[in-house]
Amino acid sequence: MNNILAIKNLSKHFDDFTAVKNVDFAVEEGGFFSILGSSGSGKTTLLRIIAGFQQESAGDVLIRGQSMKGIPPEKRPVNIVFQNLALFPMMNVRENVSFGLKRQKLNNADIKSKVNEMLERVGLNGFDNKKVTDLSGGQRQRVAIARSLVMNPSILLLDEPLGALDRKLREHMKVELKLLQKEIGTTFVYITHDQSEALVMSDKVAVMHEGEFEQIDTPHNLYKNPQTAFVAGFVGDTNRFQLQSKEGGVIMTKGGWKLSSCNLDITPEALFIRPEALIINPAANVAGIDQFEVTIKTILFDGSNTKLSTLVHGSREELLISLPQNAQFEGIVEGNTLNVGVHRDDVKCF
Questions:
Q1: Alpha carbons 60 and 81: distance in angstroms, whole number
Q2: Residues 6+ positions from 319 with CB-CB distance below 8 Å
Q3: Got the DSSP string for 231-284?
């Protein structure tokens, strides 16, 4: 596929503070590309530069191979959906969606046709005359997206658009947005601090930290094969341990837990183990699996995401272990001892 957006060595300075540092990436046409980072990581600044609301200090933004230097926001083939949606409360749904088309001075017949088509595509048929203040959060979200997409942008930029929704609606809208993007085919560039949003919806995710991209990858590879300690700790639930020493084939954490050595020539500083990578009651003498005993401190019940908080025998290390769904293990009781295993490939060292 062709790249519709290319960011070339982009930086943005505010006096002596650098918000974006030499960022370089490309987005495929028709893709769903997310920028994931915590507050202050630089992701909103980057999005505003792509939209043209802020000027880069260095580097360039290219859309379909054309530099955007000096091109104002209204002339760029992009549109943006903000977290607060910025809908016009005094207008009904049709008037909100048709607003940009009217400013382009299209004839009424074309406007009606385009709005009808877009309302159908976002599932808002029959909502034409409803006030946006009478809509649910998810419906208002679709109005904002329809208002942007009806302008036929090459790229739709989305600035934490689900941030103001309650948790249940946010979960629903994640699926809706992904399906909508696949159906319509417009390139989405989406920024979020919510790792679940990024992993569920995206074709590619860039993890941003202190103005730089730590890793750009598929959601699966980000989760399974993090390339930096920051990505390993930021994406998904994980157990993190500081390392004390490495001798021969053994590493020891600062809490005194001994495990098989990581495949690194130097002593790593930290290791990460996903709670779901830990195996309860593994088969004996399986190649590549370290086995050890833990004491169950407490059971953290959360439906299908229930975890055990445990203490590794012979150490001071606490370990979170995911309880497999429909688990029928006897002895899952606070204070009991469990035999646990972890495959060496699931121990990520940095």
A1: 23
A2: 239, 273, 278, 294, 309, 310, 311, 312, 340
A3: HHHHSS--EEEEEEEEETTEEEETTS-EEEPPS-SS--SEEEE-GGG-EESPPT
Contact 94, 129 (CB under 8 A): yes
Among 45, 1, 2, 5, which Cα is nearest to 188's?
5
- Please give the Cα distance from 219 to 212 (Å, whole number): 18
84-120 pLDDT per residue, tens:
777 888 888 898 888 888 888 888 888 888 888 888 8
Measured between alpha carbons, how far is 153 from 146 in angstroms, rounded to an integer? 11
Query: Distances in Å between the alpha carbon of 169 and those of 38, 132, 141, 232?
Result: 22, 17, 11, 28
User: What's the confidence (pLDDT) of residue 48?
Assistant: 93
| pLDDT (tens digit per residue) in 68-92 | 999 999 899 998 888 777 788 888 8
Distance, CA of 207 to CA of 43 (rounded, Å): 9
Contacts of 143 (CB under 8 A, 6+ apart): 85, 87, 93, 96, 97, 122, 124, 132, 135
pLDDT in tens, 250-270: 888 999 999 887 776 767 788
Q: Which amino acid is at 229?
A: A
Mean pLDDT of 110-136: 86
Place of tokens 């699931």: 346
DSSP assigned state of 92: B
- Model pTM? 0.88
Neighbours of 220 (CB within 10 A): 9
d(CA 210, CA 18): 9
Domains of the chain with bracketed CATH: 1-77+153-164+185-234 (3.40.50.300), 237-349 (2.40.50.140)
Over residues 312-322, the mean pLDDT reads 94
Instruction: Give pLDDT, residue 327.
Output: 65
- Statement: residue 212 has pLDDT above 90: yes
The alpha carbons of the chain give a radius of gyration, in whole angstroms, of 25
